[in-house]
Structures are given as structure tokens and as C-alpha cells.
Amino acid sequence: MVEFAAGAPCWADVMLPDLEAGKRFYGPLLGWTFGKPDPDRHRYTLTYRDDKAVGALVAKPDGRMPTVWNVYFASPDARATARAIHEAGGQVFAGPEQVGPFGTMVMAADPVGGVFGVWEGARRPGFSLKDSPGSFCWTELTTRDPETADPFYRAVFGYRTEQIGRAGGAFDYEVWTLPDGPDGAYAGGRLRMDPQAPAALPAHFTVLLGVEDCDEAADQVLGLGGKVRTPPRTSPYGRLAEVTDNQGARFTVIDLSRTAEG
């Protein structure tokens, strides 16, 4: 069982118009198997890699809702975190809601419009597997307004932060470190949005999912009806490609074993 410090990403799910189409895409791509849908929770279907929980597919209860990946951050007290979100200028639009015996959930937006979840785990703390092929590896917020977003996440989750690249420059990235963790206990990051990005593109979190081979995964995405938004490239942290699934949800595949240094 994976342990989650306060502020650590602990869960991810994707909201889809068609669950069966989602299974046909993510099963072959990530080696996932699927639990039985929960009819009481909008057909919430757990996903597994090697019999370990790695996330979920969610059938959208309303077609007007976005087709999107969501990330959840751990909290020892979801109600206190909801208050902190309000006090820091964010908005809570769902919860705190107890989800049976599994935990308590909050859905919120930061002051720049980035949507995220908060999870106070009980019977289900979060991922049973992460940082490996077929599982969650990283998340980052992309926004045009880091000057507003950065203080919000420091206030709500107490993150220590490290600037990578030059603030306001072509690559403006801030790494979030867990407040109670050792140096290098990262929670995620924040990227300043490219000025050339479409004006209608809102602030958003990206979920990075591990694969054995990024190039093969990108080809497989195309074969499964998805799209490759940026071709595979090698970074100091892994070889990655930004893709879209067969229903329009954006995410990134990453091979952590292939880095710019090796």
C-alpha cells in the first residue's frame, strides 16, 4: 500500500462519455484491467495494473461536463482543506462529500481556473501503484497567470517551491515539494502557458502516465483512435509525448527510463 503525505497526488480519474470505448483505449495502451462499474457513483470503474489500483474511468453523468483527466491531492482533513481553498481565493464546487467507507472528496478550482480534487482517504488511501509503467507518474498545472496560482498552492498545501528556468521566460516552471517530506519529495509542478496557446485553452492540470516505451505508446495511441499532440521527445526526466485519447481527454505518456542524460 502506498502512503500519501498531505499535499501529495494520490489519485486520478478520467471522465468519459463512453466507458466501454475508454476500456478499449486504455486497456491495450497501459495494460489495464477493470473492476465492476459502481452504478451508484455514475458508473465509476476502477482501473488496475498487475492487480493494483491505478485510477478510474468515470462515465459522465451530464454530457455538458468536460472529457478530462482529474488529479486528487491527499489531505488529512478534507473540510479544513476546503476552508483553506476558500480563504486563498479558490472555489469549492463539490463536497466535502463522504464516499461510502472509502474517504471524503472535494472538487475545487484555483483562482486561475485550474480544477483539482482533494481526497481524505479512509478505506482507500489512493493509488496502490505509481511511478511505473501503467500508473500515475506526475502532474503539473499549466496557467497563463503563475503570479496568482503560485501563492494559492503554497497557501493551501504548504508546498515548498523551486523555480526551474527563468520566471517569466520561455520556460517558466515551478516544482512543488511536500511540506513535511524530505528534499526531493515532489508533489508536482506549475508551467507558464505558451503565449501561442489557443486563447480558449483554460488553466488545467495534466496527468502523466507511465509506459514501457514512449515511441511505441505514441504509435499505439494513433492505432487506438487517439491523437498525438506533441511527438515523443527526451527530457532530463524521461521520454514523453502529449496525447489525446479516443474521446478527447488529454494526458501525457512518459517512459521514465529514458532521459536526456542516459
TrEMBL record:
Ranges for domain VOC:
8-121, 135-256
Q: Which Pfam families match?
A: Glyoxalase, Glyoxalase_6
Question: What InterPro entries does the record point to?
Answer: Anthracycline_SecMetBiosynth (IPR052164), Glyas_Bleomycin-R_OHBP_Dase (IPR029068), Glyas_Fos-R_dOase_dom (IPR004360), Glyoxalase_6 (IPR041581), VOC_core (IPR037523)
Enumerate the Gene3D superfamilies for this protein: 2,3-Dihydroxybiphenyl 1,2-Dioxygenase, domain 1 (3.10.180.10)
CDD domains in the cross-refs: SgaA_N_like
PANTHER family assigned to the protein according to its UniProt record, in alphabetical order: CONSERVED PROTEIN, GLYOXALASE-RELATED
State the name under which the record lists this protein. Answer: VOC family protein
Its source organism is Streptantibioticus silvisoli
